[in-house]
């Protein structure tokens, strides 16, 4: 297949999945062509089996947030990147951090680094659908779930720290509108006294900021 023909068929799609290429063509031949087009810079490999057109050839722009959901399913953006997204921490976070029920993984491609942390299926909740600047959907934790996930995955670091760690080490800000009751309810799903203590420390810190 010629590239122009391929582009005509798939350029309207935000991502190209090899598993979805139902073409009257030998699979090995198609994979060879994809590899050749990638080497020529016509398409960009996000991970094995997933590609996007280069900027010149694609008909729609895609955000890193949309890509994060597409790379590893099921997943939703959370932890440090979600905290940055909501303005709860001031420092810019470059790596996209997500939570998944699959095993922990890291993917690197020309769009950046995408980190996925494994969580129990019972805790895979507390996220919502948002549209990016290109009107493409992605899933991201609510502010309260982003805080919980951050505590959950950093428990070893936080368990022996005082509540001032949230102010001086991580510089939490803009937490006046956080629903700490929701945060407490999420924490109740986990039977872990240490986690409950750290969540209580964060809620105490948040209460002082609000007062």
Describe the structure.
The chain is an alpha+beta fold. It folds into two domains: 3-53; 64-210, no CATH class. The chain has nine helices and nine strands. The strands form three sheets. A four-stranded mixed sheet has the order 4-5-7-6, with helices on both faces. Strands 1-3-2 form a three-stranded antiparallel sheet. Strands 8-9 form a two-stranded antiparallel ribbon. The model has no long low-confidence stretch (mean pLDDT 93).
Features:
four-stranded mixed β-sheet, 38% helix, 2 domains, alpha+beta, single chain, 211 residues, elongated
How much strand content do the residues show?
15-25%
Spatial strand order of the main sheet: 4-5-7-6
Radius of gyration, Cα only, in angstroms?
Answer: 21 Å
Compressed to H and E, one letter per element, the order equals HEHEEHEHEEEEEHHHHH
- Overall average pLDDT: 93
The dominant shape is elongated
Helix content: 25-40%
Short description:
The chain has 211 residues and is α+β, with helices and mostly antiparallel strands. The chain has helices at 3-10, 27-39, 64-71, 79-85, 143-153, 155-158, 165-168, 180-187, 193-210; strands at 16-17, 43-47, 50-53, 75-77, 96-100, 105-109, 112-118, 127-131, 137-141.
Could you give the topology of this structure?
Elements: H1 3-10, E1 16-17, H2 27-39, E2 43-47, E3 50-53, H3 64-71, E4 75-77, H4 79-85, E5 96-100, E6 105-109, E7 112-118, E8 127-131, E9 137-141, H5 143-153, H6 155-158, H7 165-168, H8 180-187, H9 193-210
Helix pairs in contact: 4-5, 5-8, 8-9
